[in-house]
Amino acid sequence: MTLQRKIGFWLSAFAIFAAVVWILRDVLMPFAAGMVLAYLLDPLADRLEKWGLGRMGASLLILIAFVLLFVMLLVVAVPLLGTQVMAFIEKAPGYVTRLQILLVEQGGPLLQKVGGEKALDDLQTSLGDFVGKAMSWLGTFLTSIWSGGQALLGILSLLVVTPVVAFYILLDWDRMVARVDSWVPVDQRETVRQIMGDIDTAISSFLRGQTLVCLILGGMYAVGLMLVGLNFGLLIGISAGLLSFIPYVGSMLGLVVSVGVAIAQFWPDWTMVGLVLLVFGIGQFIEGYILSPKLVGESVGLHPVWLMFALIAAGSLFGFLGLLIAVPVSAAIGVLVRFAIKQYLASPLYSGRSGLATESGDASAASDG
């Protein structure tokens, strides 16, 4: 098979895969969640096997523990966070109004001296428009995510279908990998194994490591903001930690929201605002110098901009299903692109050696003639 045919084959396969995901996006969510869950828990099952527990027993024990933990979180955390979400939505307009009033009171005289009364009015209008557009965009994005998986985001899919799928995939994981490996052409097997190993390293390092980082950061931010006495500190802290899965977005969004709430709540006490800033400063220091180097590592190869684009684009197109597959797919594409570039840099097409060899051969033939 020529290079052009190989490229055409894989592009066609990717197009068919994307079309199938698009068509079945409303029913694939629990199955994709089960596959992701099985992938995350496979190292734990392997470790239990090394300790003498069979694969069946290890898979069953892990899934029972996970379901129990998930149910406990639903019973305890969801009602508490739901109450805070409703209260925050109710009070958010008041906070925005309070911030606008403070901005006019504190910065109005200076702004009037610089740009006049019109500049002050323009600032208020611009701030109101910005807040309105930001809330509208966030609402549209969340609605697209929710509508993409709403049909099967019920208790049945989360507590029955997803664990069952995860159990069977976890039980047969090693056999499935071995079977797929046996289908690879013999002469390409080592190359494919190297590529798949790089993809597995990228996905596992980021997915497992970043998940732990998000959970730890969410707990730290929530505890710190509640100790400061910030309204909705639990909600803001946990949200900032979970959104840290998207590089820089979670921490920056949590910082902006928490500082805005702190100013509206504590003004003119700058000490409390400073404590809120300190909470996020400590969190960023621990994440950058302790958690990410230890848990995620530097060999992931996922650029933050590429990851943000993949998550937002996949979430908008496929809803919650898109968020589940965005990281694995983007990691795989990144590895394949790096492999293709490496092959290109080592090829005559880049170095021009074939062209030089041809010119040398023509010159030699001419001199002989």
Give an overview in words.
The protein is mainly α. It contains 13 helices and no strands. It has helices at residues 3-23, 29-50, 55-149, 155-171, 173-183, 189-228, 233-243, 249-266, 270-296, 304-318, 320-345, 348-351, 353-368. The radius of gyration is 27 Å and the shape is globular. The model is unreliable at 148-152 and 355-360 (pLDDT under 50).
The separation of the N and C termini measures 38 Å
Order of helices and strands: HHHHHHHHHHHHH
Count of β-strands: 0
Task: Work out the radius of gyration.
Answer: 27 Å
Please, what is the average pLDDT?
A: 77
Q: In brief, what are we looking at here?
A:
This protein is an all-alpha fold and 369 residues long.
Sum up the structure in keywords.
13 helices; mainly alpha; 369 residues
Task: Describe the secondary structure blueprint for this structure.
Elements: H1 3-23, H2 29-50, H3 55-149, H4 155-171, H5 173-183, H6 189-228, H7 233-243, H8 249-266, H9 270-296, H10 304-318, H11 320-345, H12 348-351, H13 353-368
